[in-house]
Amino acid sequence: MEYDEINRKDVIEHKAKLVWGKDLHHKKSAPAHSPQLEAIFKDKWFDSLKGDLLEIGCGSGSDLEIFSKNKDIKSVTAIDLGENVKELEEIYKHRNDINIRNGNALSLEFDDESFDFIYSFGVFHHTSDPIKCIKEAKRVLRKNGVIFLYLYSSHEDLLFKRIGILFEQIIMNFFKFMPTKIQNLICILLGPICWLIFSVPSRILLFLGFKKLARKFPFYFGTHPFSIVEDLKDRLMSPVNHRFSKTAMVEILESINLSLFEIVKTSSGLYIYGKN
């Protein structure tokens, strides 16, 4: 690996620790994301949710809380880059079946074929090498084990989403040269603007009964001018946002020799199920 590549990887990991480990996931409760995969894959989700589970990127622990209450799960291992794991370790210190630690999706510190179920939502696309993350997840997955992922889509067929991505890329390029405090302030100031441009038209369309069209807008979920600030920080302050078309993801999953897989593309992104 050349020096520039090593340096880029280190810069991305350092920024990730600041954005999520010390800010967005530190003493804050983000909504659980696993119900989205549960709703999309239904029977596959319920039939698979058992055995030894690995969550890659546990964040503030909202999904971990759900997994911790499932009696079909034998053990839960949850990893994250940031300082947020310290708080989660304290919360679950009485549970011998739950192991929380610092970890890196690019280099999982587990033996081959260690888990029956692997879950990661919105993590791999913020790393220096998402494909390596997928390969690592597959490596530690047991025979007949399953993996559920969510990744950013390139939205090549959705005009409004493409405009949002262009807007995102331009700001991220400027953010590279700004202190974190200034980035935070800009995201707060941009919240009402983005809400007005994207969220308000989406909510009008939703009110008029155009549900599918409404969800094609970026930030369609915004409820008030500052409701999307955390999401803006998650996207714009990220060190990198990789995006994939469904076609590209099919090729990636075929290359790692999963026995079967399914990709569901929505206006939100790519939801992935794979079986080893």
List keywords for this structure.
276 residues, Rossmann fold, seven-stranded mixed beta sheet, 11 helices, globular
Molecular structure report:
- Helix content is 46%, strand content 18%.
- The protein folds into two domains: 184 residues, Rossmann fold (3-Layer(aba) Sandwich); 78 residues, no CATH class.
- The radius of gyration is 19 Å and the shape is globular.
- The relative contact order is 0.14.
- It has 276 residues and is of the alpha/beta class.
- The longest helix has 28 residues.
- The two termini are 29 Å apart.
- It has a seven-stranded mixed sheet with strand order 3-2-1-4-5-7-6, sandwiched between helices.
